[in-house]
Structures are given as C-alpha cells and as structure tokens.
Amino acid sequence: MDLCLFAEFSFQSLSQYVLNGLLMGALFALIALGYTLVYGIIELVNFAHGDVFMLGCVLTYFLCMFAPEYPTSLIFIPLLLLIVPICCSLLNITINYLVYRPLRKAPRLVPLVSALGVSFVLINVGQMAIGTSPKSIQAQLLPSETNQSSANRETENATRSNEASEELTRPRRSWLTWADILLIGTVIPAMTGLALLVKFTKIGKAMRATAQNPIAARLMGINVEFVIALTFALGGIFAGLAAVVFTLKITTIDYLMGYKNGLYAFTAAVVGGVGSIPGAVLGGILIGLIYSLGAVYIGGAWVDACIFGTLIILLVFRPSGILGTRVREKV
Amino acid sequence: MYRLLKLLAIVGICLPSVGCPKNSGSNKIVIISSLPRTGSAKGQTDTMVNGIKMAIEEYGGKIGDFEIVYLDKDDAEASSGQWTASAETANAKEAAENPDVMVYIGPYNSGAAAVSMPILNEAGIVMISPAATATGLTKKNPNNPDEPRIYRPTGKINFCRVVPTDDVQGPIAARFVKEELKKTKVYVLNDNERYGEGVANEFEAEARKLGLQVLGSDKINVSQQEFGALMEKINNVKDGPPEVIYFGGTTQSKGGQIAKDMLKKIPNCIMIGPDGCYENAFIESVGKVEAGKLFVTFGGKDPSALEGAGKEFVQRYKQKYNTEPEAYAVYGYEAAKVALEAIKKVNKKDRDAIRQAVLGTKDFSAGAIGKWSFTEEGDTTQQIFTVSQVKDGKFVPYKEINGAK
Amino acid sequence: MKYFSASSVVAVLVFGLLFLVPNLPLGQLGIPSNLVTELLILTILALGLNVIIGYTGLLHLGIAGVYGIGTVCTGILVTEAFPFQQSFVITLIISTVVTALISMAITAPVLRLRGDYFALVTLGFCEIVVTVLKEFEHITGGKKTLQNLRPPLFPEFLSSLEQSLDLVGKWRIFPIFYYICLGLLLLIFLGLRNLEKSRIGRGFVAIREDELAASAMGLNPAKLKLMAIGIGSGIVGLAGCLFAVHSTNTTEPQVSFTFNVSVIILASVILGGMGSRTGMLVGVLLLLGYDKIGTRLLSDVLSQLPDKPYFKLSSWRYMIFGLVLILMMRFRPYGIIPEKRN
C-alpha cells in the first residue's frame, strides 16, 4: 500500500504469511464443508452453521477447564476431538428436526429466514454461556512454543554471539506451531474420510442421489429424511472438529465469532462451487490466503471487505463457483 | 377517502391537547449516573456506583429542603457488552427532559461523553465524569481543532472530570518506559477510536521527545479476531523487534488479544496500555501471564495508597460492601461529593447555578483524594497516575507518578 | 361497508394512539420520550424494507447498510466540517434521493441472482458499506462519527417563517420532532397504500408470486425490482436522515448499521406480515417497542432479582428476535395480520 511496506518485504515473512493463510484456509474449508453438504442436499444456506461452530468453541473452552496438566493433557486432545464434534452434530440434527424439517415444502426463502432466527438464538446461548467479552483458554494443552523458541535463542546466542546479533534478538521463527500440526493432522484425515464416504459407501451414493434429485431418490427407496439428517450430522462433526482446532490455535473465543467465520466459510464454499467438496477445500484455501495476506498488505480493516467483495463478484459472474457445475433454475 | 377523513378528524381532536406544560414543583433533586452497567466494565462501574451511594448517604439523602434521589442508568447493552451511542443518547435525553435532574455523573467512556455532552449542554446540566480521559473533551486538541467547541453548542462549559487527561496519561507512559523500564525501542498501536488514537498520539509524541526510538505505528482493525500477522510484521520491522508495545485502546477494542498475540510472537516484549484496559475483562482475555509483562496506567491513586480522609473512606467502604474498593470507587465518590457540595452551597433547584458552583470548585478537600481544584476548562488539578502491572491474574499497583509539570 | 376492513380500522386506531402519545405522562411512566421518536423512525425504516421484502419478495439482508448511507449522507450535508450545511428539509430530500440512487447502483448488477444468493450479496454489501463508513473517516466521520448535527428546519430564504412559527432550535425537541416523524410516517403509509393499488405495486406483487409468469405477462422484472429497491431504499434513507437529526450524530457504523440491525428489522417486518402495511405497523411497534422501551421499563422491575446476566432482559435480545423469526416462519409465515390475498 505504501512504500514502507515494500521496504519490509522479505521472502521469509511472506512465506510465513502464506503458510498462516493456508492453515486458516484449511480451517475455513472444514467449516465450509458443513455449508456445502447441506446446500447440496436441500438448497438451504444454513446460516446457523457458523454459530454451531461458535458453540463448539464455547464447549471446548469449558472442557479445557477440566484439562489436566501439560504432559497428560495430550491425551485430553483426542477426547476433545471426540466429544465436541458429537455434541455439535447432535445440535445440528436437533435444529434440523425442530426447525427445518417442518419447512421442507415451504418456499425457498422461508427456511433461510428461519436459519437466521436459529443463528440469533444460538448467538444468545453463546452470550449467556461466556458473556460478551472475549475469553481466553487458561489451560495449556499443547507443548509451549515460547519456551522452546527462547531456549533455542539462548543456546544460539551463546554459540554465535558476535555475528548478526540483530538477527538473533528476534525470536526464532517457528514455522509450524504444535497447534498448526494438530490442525493439519485433523483436517487431512477428516477431508479424506468424507471424500471416501461420499464416493465409495452406499450411504454416500444415497447422498449423491438425493442431491441430484430428491424425488427420484425417494422413489428409488432412499430414506431422504435420513440422508438429510445425516448430512446435518456430518456438517456438525466438521464444525466441531474445526471448533476444537480453532480454539486450540487461536485460544480466544467470543460469542460473535460464529457469524464472521461462518461467512468466511460460506464464501469459501461459494468460491469453490456450492455442493462440491474439493471446491470447498480450494475455496477455503483461497479465502485463507486473502485473510492472511490482506491483513498485512492491504490493511486489517479491509480484509472483510475484500472477502465479501470476492463473494459478490463470484456470485455475479460465476455463481456456480470455480469447480461447480452450472445448474439451471428449476421452474 | 372516508378513512382519510376519519384520520384527519382524530388529528383535529388530538392537536389542541398537545404540549401541555410540565410541572416541576417537587423538592426532589435527581442525580443521574450513566455508566456501562452491563458488559466488561461492570466490575469498575459497580464500585463507582457504590462510591456514589456512599457519598449520598453521608448527607442522609437530604440537602437543605431537597431530597436527593439517585438514578443509576446503564449506557451499555447486554447484547453488545459495552456502551452504545443509542443508550447514552437515551440517558442524556432522559436527563434533559426530567426537570428534576440537576447533575449527570458520567459517562465512563470518552466516546460516550462526546455523544451526550452536546445534548446535556443544551439542557444546561452539569456533567461530572469519574473516568473519561480523552483530551479533546475539555482542552484544545491538535488532532481535531474543532474540539472542544463542537461539544458546547451553547458556548457554556458543562463538562468536568475528577480524573486527569490523556495529554498527561500518554506522556507518563512514555516516561515510564524510559525511566522505569529503561527500554528504548517502542512500537505504537491504536484502535482508531477517539480515545485510543488520542492517547496513542500523545504517547508517541512524548516518546520521540524523550529520545525513544519509535519503530512504527499502526491502527488495528478491531473486528479482526487475532493479530498474529500484525505481530509477525512488527517483529520483522526495521531495527526491530521492539521492546515495548504501547496500545492506545480499550479491552473492547481487543486490548487483551493484542497482548496475547504479542506474548506469543514477541515473547520478550512488554505491553503498556491506558486506563481503557484497566478492567478485569482485559486479564480474562489475556489468560496466564508472568508479572512484569503487561502494564496499565490509570488516572488517580490506588486505594491502598490513599491517606487521611481517603484511608477512612477505604475502611468504611470495606465495612459496608465487604470487599476492597477498586480504584474507581474513590472517583465515583469524589464526583458525587463535588456535586453534593455544590448543591449544598447553592441550595437552589437551578441547573445553571449548580453548574457554576460545580465548575467553580476550588481547593476541594471534602472528598477522598486530597486537595484539588477545577481549572477553567473543567479539568482537575490533580495529576497523579498509577502504573499497575498484571500479576497473578490481577492488577497490582507498581508505581505512582505525578504528571504535574 | 366495504371501506371498513379490519386492517384499516386497526391502522386508524394505531395512528390515533400515536398522536396521543406525547400527551401521556411519559416521564412519570419512565419512558424516555426520545425512544418513542426513535421507534417511529424505525417504523419508517421497516416500511421501506417492506417494499423490498414484502411487496417484491427480494430478501434484502443489508438494509442496515442502506440506513447507514442515509444517516451519513445527512451527516455530511449538515455538519459544520463541510461547506454544505443544509437545512433539514433540503437534507431530507437529498438524503432520500442519494440513498435510493446509491442503493440502486450497487444492487443493479446482482438483481438477476436467485433469492438466497441475492440475500447473501446484500449482506456482503452491508459489510462493505460499514467498512467504508468506518474507514473513510475524513468524509464519513468513521468511528468518531460526525457530531453536532443541528440543522435549521427550513433553508435560509424561509428562515423568517421558522422564526415566526417560533420553531428555531425547538423543532428538534420532543413533541415537535415527534410530530414531524409521525407526519412523515403517515405520508409514507398513505403513499404506499396508493403504490399498492397502482400498476407498479401490482407489478411488484406479481414478481413476488411468480417471476416467470410475470415476465410472460409482459412485465419487466429487472426494471420492477430495481424500482422496488429504489423506492424502498429511498424510504430507508429518509429514516436514516431522521435518525441522524434525532440523535445529533451519525453513531458508530460498526454498532448501528450491522447485520444484526438488519435482522432485527427483518424480524419486525416478518412478525407483522410481509407486504401488509397495517400488520407491519403493529408488528414493528410491538417488537421494537418491546426492545427499545419494554426492556427498559421491565429492567427496573427486575432489578430486585440477583444481579446475573440471565435476569437482565436485554441479555435475551437475540433470543427473542430469533424465536420470532423461527416461530413466525413455522406457524404464521404471512404475519400476525396477513395481507389480503385474492
């Protein structure tokens, strides 16, 4: 934007921003899957999905209060990755059953407005649970980053005291933190698992059939309501996984985070083509890069505007997204 | 057409009864306070309200023939967790319309003061703020030449405060960096709000004057959820990394998150914030932190450092509410005392007379913080600041600095 | 007795009551009168949204952003920081027109999108508008807001009229400004009634019911939609202007003009019944009246209870609006007083 920024430009810092963008993008992709799956099946923009993610973060925050001390806490993480997704998927199924299911035959905008309502209700629940100010995770679950890097720095200081002293006073750049490794370790198996599920199992076939044509699927003997419930459950699981990883990576949560992250994720889903699973991943990564690089090179205030600008431009010029196929309006 | 006629008929019936005069013959004097009573500043405002109530009780709720009624209004909304312009406007207008209201204690936030000042100025009600510190509310401000004139549509002064201002607070933090912390490289951040930007600019100017090396300054985007990328950039800044980051902003504008990300990315750095971060919510959002990493300045003395009448006040407060008073309790008490003494002196139910009496307060020692006066602009001559550090999950006073030049 | 449909009786009653409001002992009831005025302004805002959502069936989720454009436009025209310094009447007209034009310009390219995509795009616009209002602070005041908006009522050549009516400085104070707002509300209400019966209004409804059939009948959906956006946004801009003058500043964009505000207004429109003016009036006054005034009154009653967030009514704000949306959609999708449908 201005000259001083270019003066500071270095490949090293750029690579760090790119890496951070990719990681955030993977996280957005995980949430985006929830949107894309549901939209693929019942053509509903499930506005409440972001807030399910938020409640997952809130649950993680509360569970972390019972976390044991550091080394034992490593066992606690898989437990979190189990409990939170289950709770989120149960919540999602309940919402589907209570709110969306009675509206299946209503005009398309009716469930969308209900989803806005659900989103508001969930926001209020989150606000009741943690209050309005941001909360921080107190427990230390993952190995500490700062101690490690400062220890490294001291040893290096001792060995190479004279040369490039300025470079040494900087904390050693940790390319991947433990939270990032956890993120990668969660996202890749989750995505692969979903892809395999959709592609190779019978239930996956039923999902694809329902997405293509619910009536025909029903005539073929597929229990469409069950498929829809399963889709919501899967969306909830991914929201829960994302919530645990996000909470452990960012370590601060607040009750309005669902709206924003939900919109980023939805944008990611649209960018990749709603209904397409690889599209969600691609879109997530793109949005993650805008999120990370935009904050540095354009200015933090404009990040949201950039992401929503992307959303608008895409919806106007290529509503089917990068990887999506064009669907003709049904009459 | 028929319907229209009917409507017009109703209009005709209603109009004559419009605008019946208000009667204000009662002998009630209402003191209204407008503070964020929900959300993250609640802990501070609770003690302020306790202080105000104690001051009123000292007079038995009565001055002369007038019964003193205290109204505790909230200028925050639970759904936003902090003050909102609409709530503050509603409180100010409510005060303006109620003929019994003579004194307005508050607001807590400088931004809120900017909203309510013009309204109350037109109504002629005196405002006494126990916490708003932005310079431009009372003094000429180089960043905005229209201040403070735009807050005073009638030209009269109606705003005063018992806390010192940001043109002292910012420089004191700079002096603290140089003299106490003995650091030289600083980086300045602000939240781009009236209060935060103002105090950050004051800090930066003084830091340059003192010969500290200002590596750069940035405005943060408050709606961002984390500042890892920003901290990465600050860490890589030319001649960096900084030893101290000054954040001009509040807990609500992500002070806690800034501190947290700083500790994560630049662990050797120290952060200093202004009184907007002096809230428990700040510590809650930072999480665990070792002592000597986070400092907060605020205008006034810590209750433990008070002497004489102040010490006695602290004891009475402890007896009554069974907790240690927080720093702001004293200032709530002080603000109420100024108002009550002025009412006592005037002994009339007259907004303008009370306003003049409050602003004319000189050598005031009836309160808890010792002797002070109001300047012509409505600022206190008391210039003491306390620097507190975050230690074991709470604020612990670190050093008291007198800002008087 | 064709003229006395239930909804027109209700409308007459509501307006009658609103006329009487300033004569109530508001102060003794503990109702700040400025909130009553604000309620009227929000009702105008909701009527504007109703043109877009109710008549034409476009789910616009960024109405708060449009409201913000109107407010800031007024701020720019009135504040002493800029050389315009127009009077209230002129500002009102310019704000209305400018807001309508800006809104039409940014919505025109996306009108052909399907309903749910349109909703998201307008939501995106709202976020961008808020960012622009927040960041271009030399023009819009940003978070520091444009202060001290105290325009004279009439332009200079009519100032003697203002003096002779003894309105100088007084017209912005409670009863008079309240009646100005009420008058505008009544004007818009009657205007919309005529619009509904006109060719354009029937065109809007035709598009809502079936766009394809409407275009087969020779209507131009794009043109009609744009018109609905223009008319609706104009009314919203007018509400924004009243809001700016009422609160004498432009308030912080990140609080007043966000998505949440859009949904709150949407909830009130839906409670009353999309497309039905009278229903809307009742819905908005009930829901927003509860939100703005009811919570304030009841909170005094509830203050005896222990000091916990869940005993504070204002903590349940989102829950109430959310439940209204869910329950209305489930049980009465056409509102408490549905529009007559043939």
What does it look like?
The complex is a heterotrimer of chains A (331), B (405) and C (342). Chain A has 14 helices and two strands; from the N terminus they run αααααβααααααβααα. Chain A has helices at residues 3-8, 11-42, 49-64, 70-100, 109-130, 145-159, 165-169, 178-200, 202-212, 214-219, 224-250, 257-272, 277-299, 303-317, and strands spanning 135-136, 252-253. In chain A, helix 2 crosses helix 13 (277-299), helix 8 packs antiparallel against helix 11 and helix 13 (277-299) packs across helix 14. Chain A is globular and about 55 Å long. The N and C termini of chain A lie far apart (48 Å). Chain B folds into two domains: 2-163 and 308-374, 3-Layer(aba) Sandwich (Rossmann fold), CATH 3.40.50; 166-298 and 385-402, Response regulator (Rossmann fold), CATH 3.40.50. Chain B is built from twelve helices and 13 strands. In chain B, the strands form two sheets. A seven-stranded mixed beta sheet of chain B has the order 8-7-9-10-11-12-13, sandwiched between helices. In chain B, strands 2-3-1-4-5-6 form a six-stranded mixed beta sheet, with helices on both faces. In chain B, strand 9 (244-248), helix 8 and strand 10 form a beta-alpha-beta unit. Chain C has a single domain, classed as ABC transporter involved in vitamin B12 uptake, BtuC. Helices cover 69% and strands 0% of the residues of chain C. In chain C, helix 1 packs across helix 15 (277-302) and helix 4 packs across helix 12. Classes of the chains: A mainly alpha (331), B alpha/beta (405), C mainly alpha (342). The interface between B and C is large, with 43 and 48 residues.
